[in-house]
């Protein structure tokens, strides 16, 4: 599809996908971004935490990446001039009473990060040793199986059991780890396609350090807005989108109607479908094929959600307790945000199984996260077919709209794909044109 430059394009949603799409599209077109909230959604839930006379920003949810799985995000950060820093994302898995049953650490060697078990970690017991042996086996065998054509329809739970991995590994490590990365329940984690999980692990996770934007999400957002070249209208919800000949009419929640040549919807699939006043059967089927689940996140300074013994704390602590559908994942912010290394302990807990003391709560947020399973894979293929239709005027991007685990990478990759379809250079191969302007 050939799109002439200078088109009027609306982007609905100012999360990272929407802002990245607008930033790339503004190279060729006149772009307006609409955000229903009073500020861009990418940083809307961040928390200010006072220490030493100033407010330190804590991203909600905390955002980290590792280069092997996030090439498009890394390319965008380079274009923007966003610096990043390596952080430890070592983890301890604990039972309901806080007793650790498995732990791995990060060892930094010549710029590489290696996941290791220290000798004392093997003393946690036979369960820890069984998990460690199975993890080593998984890392050796499964990337080769993926390269040889691992069945894409097999779930990771079925695949792991068919390959003879012990229950201690599948239920005690693999499911909690996937549930934490994909922000889902343990049962939903085991429904993720095996190929998706192995691909995630095979991209250098055990050798590349996990990183975070040096100055957090606020710096990323500031740079996108500063030099984006697009208009941003916050506090303007979109009530309906309706195609009109060779354009799209956008009806906002304040009663105004505007016409655009193209509209990019950077909102979750159910919200996108609800906006379409004239959705086709194929659009309804594709967008309706993505399922979402709620995720609660609480930022706090209550150490009672960590293991009773301080020596059992890790940057990430996963509590796996019977009767709770998802692992409780608590991030020790001081360990992954170096500027707060010497501050009093502060934490962020995802899928809380217990409540911190009310006076220690700094912020609460609820998100909707797309699930990854066989159904979402079919929906993604249907979405790509929609985008390939001649004469298309409505486009969709977001973390759900690309293959793989729905993370910042898939959000940015989907934005780049839509921008390219609309004639704008986007992605890692187009960095030099904008990098100098954004490096200050």
Number of domains: 2
Q: Within the CATH hierarchy, at the fold level, what is the topology of the largest domain?
A: Polyamine Oxidase, Chain A, domain 2
The strand order across the widest sheet is: 8-7-6-16-17-18-15-19
- The count of helical stretches stands at 15
Q: How many strands in all?
A: 20
Note the beta-strand portion. 15-25%
Provide key terms for this protein.
8-stranded mixed β-sheet, alpha/beta, disordered C terminus, 440 residues, 20 strands, 15 helices, Polyamine Oxidase, Chain A, domain 2, globular, FAD/NAD(P)-binding domain, 5-stranded parallel β-sheet
Structure description:
This protein has 440 residues and is of the alpha/beta class. It is built from 15 helices and 20 strands. It has two domains: 186 residues, 3-Layer(bba) Sandwich (FAD/NAD(P)-binding domain), CATH 3.50.50; 209 residues, Polyamine Oxidase, Chain A, domain 2, CATH 3.90.660. Strands 8-7-6-16-17-18-15-19 form an eight-stranded mixed β-sheet. Strand 1, helix 1 and strand 2 form a beta-alpha-beta unit. Helix 1 packs parallel to helix 14 and helix 10 packs antiparallel against helix 11. The two termini are 36 Å apart.
């Amino acid at each position: 599809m050939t799109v002439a430059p200078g088109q009027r394009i609306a982007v609905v949603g100012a999360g990272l996908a929407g802002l990245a799409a607008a930033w790339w599209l503004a190279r060729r077109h006149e772009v307006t971004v609409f955000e229903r909230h009073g500020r861009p959604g990418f940083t809307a839930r961040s928390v200010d935490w006072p220490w030493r006379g100033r407010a330190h920003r804590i991203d909600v949810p905390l955002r980290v990446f590792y280069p092997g799985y996030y090439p498009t995000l890394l390319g965008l950060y380079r274009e923007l001039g966003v610096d990043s820093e390596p952080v430890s994302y070592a983890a301890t898995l604990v039972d309901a009473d806080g007793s650790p049953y498995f732990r791995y650490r990060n060892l930094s060697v010549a710029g590489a990060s290696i996941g290791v078990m220290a000798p004392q970690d093997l003393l946690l017991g036979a369960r820890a040793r069984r998990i460690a042996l199975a993890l080593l086996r998984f890392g050796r065998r499964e990337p080769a199986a993926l390269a040889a054509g691992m069945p894409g329809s097999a779930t990771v739970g079925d695949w792991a059991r068919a390959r003879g991995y012990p229950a201690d590994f599948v239920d005690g490590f693999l499911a909690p780890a996937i549930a934490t990365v994909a922000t889902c329940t343990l049962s939903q984690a085991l429904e993720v396609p095996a190929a998706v999980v192995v691909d995630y692990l095979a991209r250098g996770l055990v050798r590349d350090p996990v990183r975070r934007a040096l100055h957090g999400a606020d710096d990323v957002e500031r740079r996108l807005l500063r030099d984006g070249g697009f208009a941003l209208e916050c506090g303007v919800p979109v009530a309906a989108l309706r195609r009109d000949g060779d354009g799209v009419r956008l009806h906002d929640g304040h009663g105004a109607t505007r016409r655009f040549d193209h509209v990019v919807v950077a909102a979750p699939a159910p919200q996108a479908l609800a906006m379409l006043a004239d959705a086709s059967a194929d659009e309804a089927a594709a967008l309706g094929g993505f399922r979402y689940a709620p995720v609660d996140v609480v930022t706090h300074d209550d150490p009672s959600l960590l293991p009773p013994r301080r020596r059992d704390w890790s940057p990430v602590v996963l509590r796996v307790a019977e009767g709770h559908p998802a692992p409780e994942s608590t991030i020790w912010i001081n360990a992954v945000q170096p500027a707060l290394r010497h501050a009093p302990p502060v934490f962020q807990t995802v899928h809380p199984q217990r409540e911190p003391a009310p006076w220690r709560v700094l912020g609460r947020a609820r998100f909707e996260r797309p699930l990854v399973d066989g159904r979402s894979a079919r929906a993604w293929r249907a979405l790509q077919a929609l985008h390939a239709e001649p004469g298309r005027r409505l486009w969709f991007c977001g973390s759900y709209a690309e293959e793989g685990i729905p993370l910042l990478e898939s959000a940015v990759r989907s934005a780049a794909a839509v921008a390219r379809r609309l004639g704008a250079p986007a992605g890692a191969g187009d960095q030099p044109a904008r990098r100098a302007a954004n490096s200050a």
